[in-house]
Amino acid sequence: MLRNRQLSRILWRQIALSKTDYARPCSGILSPKPINSRQQCTATIKESYLKKFMNAVGWMDQDRTRLKLTGYVLYESVPDKVAYNEWFEKLELPDTFASWFIVTELHVWMLLVRYMAVDISTATGKKKYVKGDGYFVRNCIIEAQWADVGNRIKMLEGANPAIAKKQVTELSEQFQAALVGYDEGLSDDRVLAGAIWRRFYSMSDDVKAENVEKIVHFVRRQLSELDKIPSESLRWKPELKWLSILDH
C-alpha cells in the first residue's frame, strides 16, 4: 500500500477534528443522559435507561462489540508476542518501563496506520478519509493500551497513585508527539529515522547509527506484512505476525 504525506495529512486532519482525544487515556464509559420523568411512565423509564446503558457498553450492537474485542486482542498481541528482550539487547536500550513503552508504542502506531487505511476511499478517483470500522478499532486499540499502561504503572514497586497519574499524563503527551513524528516519516526514511532517534535515544550523539537503521528497516518490513492482510480480515479475524528486530 502506497502511503504519502498527503494521505498522512488527511488522516491527522480528521483526527484533529474529533472532539474526543483518543490519544489520551480514557476515563471509562460515559453515563447516559438523564431522562425526564415527567414525560414518561415508570416502565418506559426503566426500559429506556436500560437500553441506553446497554448501547453504551456495546451489548445491543454485536458488530461494534466484536470490533471492540478485535481492538483489544490486537493490542494484546503486542505485549504478548513482541520479543522485548531482543529489542533491549540488540538496540542497546535499558530494560526499563520507559523502554517497554517506547517499543510498545511503535508497534501500536503501526497497527493504527494499517487500520486507519481501511477507511480510505478512492471511489471518486481521489483519496478520501471517511470514519468507519478502522477508526473505531483504532480507538479501541488505544483504549486498551492505556488500560494496560495504567495497570502496569500501579504494579511498579513503590508506586504512588498521584505520581502514577502524572506519569500516565506525561506518557500521553509523549505518545501523541511520537505518533505525529512517525506519521511524518511514513514516506521518507530520513524523516522516520529522525523520529526514531528522538524517541528511542533522545537525540543522543552516542547512539550507533546502525541501531536506528535497524528500526527503520523493521518498520518498513512490518508495515509491508500488515498491508498483506485483507481489510475484511482486519475487521473480524486479524492474524498478526510480529517480525523480530533481528529479521532481515
From TrEMBL:
Q: Which domain of life is it from?
A: Eukaryota
Report domain Ubiquinol-cytochrome c chaperone positions: 89-235
Q: Name one GO biological process term.
A: mitochondrial respiratory chain complex III assembly
What's a single GO CC term here? mitochondrion
Which InterPro entries does the entry link to? Answer: Ubiq_cyt_c_chap, Ubiqinol_cyt_c_chaperone_CPB3
The record ties this protein, via PANTHER family, to: UBIQUINOL-CYTOCHROME C REDUCTASE COMPLEX ASSEMBLY FACTOR 1 FAMILY MEMBER, UBIQUINOL-CYTOCHROME-C REDUCTASE COMPLEX ASSEMBLY FACTOR 1
State the similarity comment: Belongs to the CBP3 family.
Q: What is this protein called?
A: (African queen) hypothetical protein
Q: Which organism is it from?
A: Danaus chrysippus
User: Which taxonomic lineage is given here?
Assistant: Eukaryota, Metazoa, Ecdysozoa, Arthropoda, Hexapoda
